[in-house]
Design goal:
This protein is of the alpha+beta class. It folds into three domains: 202 residues, D-Maltodextrin-Binding Protein, domain 2; 118 residues, Alpha-Beta Complex (Dipeptide-binding Protein, domain 1), CATH 3.90.76; 240 residues, Roll (Dipeptide-binding Protein, domain 3). The protein has 22 helices and 23 strands. The chain has a five-stranded mixed sheet with strand order 18-17-19-13-20, sandwiched between helices. Strands 1-10-9-8 form a four-stranded mixed sheet, with no helix packed on it. The protein has a four-stranded antiparallel sheet with strand order 4-5-7-6. Helix 20 runs antiparallel to helix 21. It is globular, with a radius of gyration of 25 Å.
């Protein structure tokens, strides 16, 4: 933690917190939280906010009793110790009344509040041991020719309005995505889904356009990023999915199958109360969550977030730098993360810190320039300076998850052959000269009298990497200045996905149990149709085009993974060799975020000693933690 932030963390008062968060508009004065005792009490007046009300929904300028709750809003107070408080944004909740998971930005909404409250999935997955966890579905079976998947749904699942969850809802959702190109995941469903055949309410078959033995696993079981939420046909039929926000509290919208229901939403906060009619409890499948209310609140920027967690005013969804975490735990030892000891506090998450390169347009389209850029980098220094040694350098495009380790070893000779982690200024100069560049009078690379000045972007949440990489590249003769987008990542993703950036710092997520998950992202099918047009997938932005590589991925698509299957491993090795030879992308290190959980009010969070699910609150399976955590009894 820096000297600038440390005093704020230690001295921020509750009155400052109230002023900072400013959660309630004048028209919404009904308090959401009671006093410190387990029994609910009337909301306090403005003059005397309590510890529990301050953390969630502080009173307005007028006494709370004088302003009724909005229609459909909270009807009862819930004590702080029964409430799970999440970080919901810096200054306000963005799009607070948009609960459409497929319109523009839908992935962010799913990973925000929706996967912890109203949406459940056919399966969940434990990334720590590879366990597939049936949920809305009971089972699935891939056909022998991998051209279809037969699925059986769990009996007794209902939507929050009481109507049955059926195979027709699945058919409706997948075929609508297939046929509506403007929607998130539409290109995926268009590529793979021929149609869905329904046998009865509990049985359906997904028929594929071409064989894919991992289709169901990838989209409905494991994938932390892109689980496909199923929507209720009786609500969404006839709606314009590109515009429909799925919000009307008077009608009970949004409707989902999850154990929580929305009770209020505004830029100042989203609030979901436990649904005591949840199908999971009624069928005996699960016990009710001990959490009675989930609140998603805007809590300020990094220093403010840490202050609120230290003072027990937020429970989850906070990420800290390693030094910040150490400083914070010295003030509040109830703050915990994955590992009990550092410096590698965080867990792997199947994602990698990468330096993206535009292999089609601009100066990085020359493979010699890309090789020179890679030779300018010192990965260990990047890890040490940007993330305080809390992660590990990597050169292959897959994580250190246990299931991937055999494949990593199979590629050791390729790593030795291409030596990607070899900072070498002589190699930089050789490659740049081969590309036709010479250094100008200021020591920067130029061609035909024009200095190369690549457009260099850094994703908003990866700021620590930017100055380190920028300095290494400048020292090697590249005139680059990283453009940071500290609060809004949309300009970053627009530039990268449209092929308008030359170099960028990003997280690349994909492989968790086999190399195919990330290697497939370099297939030309993910490229932008032309510069200035958006490519179809947020992590696949290299614009790489190589028919030989495409053919290898097309073959891998049809094969189940196995580190002992020579057909599979030979294809993987050929892909990795092309990746290393052509420097399609530069893997820097593993992403290991220090995701912090506050154990003051809630205990039983996932950890290295209790690894029942991965610790990432953005991922689908975090619902398992919400259902499992226990109150500590703290007042």
């Amino acid at each position: 933690m820096s000297k600038e932030t440390e005093p704020v963390v230690r001295t921020m008062s509750r009155r400052e917190f109230l002023r900072l968060v400013g959660l309630v508009a004048a028209a919404s004065g009904a308090a959401l939280f009671a006093g410190c005792s387990p029994a609910t009490t009337p909301a306090p007046q403005v003059e005397a906010p309590t510890a529990t009300t301050a953390a969630a929904k502080p009173p307005t300028d007028a006494p709370a009793a004088e302003a009724p709750a909005p229609a459909g809003g909270p009807k009862q107070d819930v004590a702080r110790q029964d409430t799970l408080i999440h970080y919901g944004g810096d200054t306000e909740v963005l799009e607070p009344t948009n609960f459409n998971p497929y319109s523009l930005g839908g992935l962010g909404r799913i990973r925000g509040a929706l996967n912890k409250t109203i949406f459940e999935f056919l399966y969940y997955y434990n990334h720590n041991d590879g366990a597939e966890i049936p949920w809305l579905a009971d089972s699935y079976k891939v056909s022998d020719d991998s051209a279809s998947v037969a699925v059986t749904l769990r009996m007794g699942v209902t939507w929050s309005d009481g109507k049955s969850f059926t195979a027709n809802d699945v058919k409706f959702t997948l075929e609508k995505l297939r046929d509506t190109p403007e929607l998130a995941f539409a290109s995926d469903m268009k590529e793979w889904v021929k149609d869905v055949t329904v046998s009865d309410d509990l049985h359906f078959t997904i028929n594929l356009n071409k064989p894919n033995p991992r289709f169901f696993y990838f989209y409905f079981v494991e994938n932390s990023e892109i689980h496909i939420p199923i929507l209720p046909k009786h609500i969404w039929d006839g709606q314009d999915w590109t515009q429909f926000q799925n919000y009307d509290l008077a009608k009970g919208w949004p409707v989902g199958t999850g154990p929580f229901k929305l009770v209020e939403a505004s830029p100042q906060g989203q609030f979901f109360d436990r649904d005591d009619n949840w199908w999971g409890v009624k069928t005996g499948f699960q016990k009710p969550s001990k959490v009675k209310r989930q609140a998603f609140l805007p809590l300020g920027a990094s220093a403010a977030q840490i202050a609120h967690m230290i003072s027990n005013e937020v429970d989850v969804d906070i990420t800290m730098q390693p030094g910040e975490f150490v400083a914070a735990t010295s003030q509040n030892p109830e703050l915990k993360t994955w590992n009990e000891q550092g410096p590698a506090w965080g867990a792997p998450d199947a994602c990698l810190f990468t330096l993206g390169l535009n292999t089609k347009w601009g100066p990085m389209s020359d493979v010699h320039v890309r090789r020179a850029v890679q030779a300018a980098l010192n990965r260990q220094q990047i890890v040490d300076l940007a993330y305080e040694g809390s992660t590990v350098p990597l050169v292959l495009p897959f994580s250190t998850y246990g299931g991937l380790e055999p494949y990593r070893k199979l590629c050791d000779d390729l790593v030795e052959k291409y030596k990607p982690d070899n900072q070498d200024q002589k190699l930089v100069e050789t490659e740049m000269q081969t590309a036709g560049y010479q250094k100008d009078g200021d020591g920067f690379w130029a061609k035909d009298g024009t200095r190369m000045q690549p457009v260099f972007h850094c994703a908003c949440w990866l700021g620590p990497l930017a100055p380190v990489i920028e300095k290494q590249l400048r020292d090697a003769g590249f005139d680059v200045t990283a453009k940071l987008t500290p609060t809004d990542c949309n300009p970053f993703f627009q530039a990268v996905q449209q092929g308008m950036a030359d170099i960028w710092i990003i997280v690349h997520c994909g492989s968790s149990r086999e190399p195919w998950g990330t290697l497939q992202h370099y297939h030309s099918k993910f490229n932008s149709p032309e510069q200035g047009k958006t490519d179809p997938y947020i992590w696949a932005n290299s614009q790489y085009s190589n028919p030989e590589y495409d053919a290898l991925i097309d073959q891998l698509d049809k094969i189940l993974p196995s580190p002992t299957d020579k057909t599979y491993t030979d294809l993987v090795r050929q892909c990795v060799e092309i990746y290393l030879r052509d420097v399609v992308e530069i893997t820097l290190s593993e992403e290991r975020w220090v995701r912090v959980y506050n154990n003051h009010y809630w205990k039983g969070w996932p950890s290295a000693s209790n690894p029942y699910v991965a610790p990432y609150a953005l991922w689908a399976a975090i619902m398992l933690a919400v259902l499992r955590i226990e109150p500590t009894g703290a007042a």
